[in-house]
TrEMBL record:
It comes from Thanatephorus cucumeris (strain AG1-IA) (Rice sheath blight fungus). Transmembrane segments: none annotated. GO terms for molecular function: heme binding; iron ion binding; monooxygenase activity; oxidoreductase activity, acting on paired donors, with incorporation or reduction of molecular oxygen. It comes from the Eukaryota. This is Cytochrome P450 domain-containing protein.
Amino acid sequence: MLFNVPYRLIFSGAALRRVNSGDTEIDGKKIPNGTYLVYSTGETHSDPNIYPNPSQVLGTIQVAMLRAKIKRRRMVSLDGVSH
C-alpha cells in the first residue's frame, strides 16, 4: 500500500487487519492458523529500504519512480493469492 505525499508522512496505525485462516510462512517465519495479522503503515512508510529518506517530501516525478520500484517488489497477499 502506497500513500500519496504528505499522507505517508503523517499517517500511522493499522490500516489492514485480519486473522490468518491457515498455517503459512512469510520470509521464513511460520504464521500459525488463527494468528492476528496487522499491516503497520508507520513501519512500512518510514522504512529507509523503501524510502531512501523517509522524512523527505517527494515531488511528483520522484513519487512516480518510487511507485515503479515498489511494484517490482513481491507483494504479500492476505487472501492466499500472490500479487
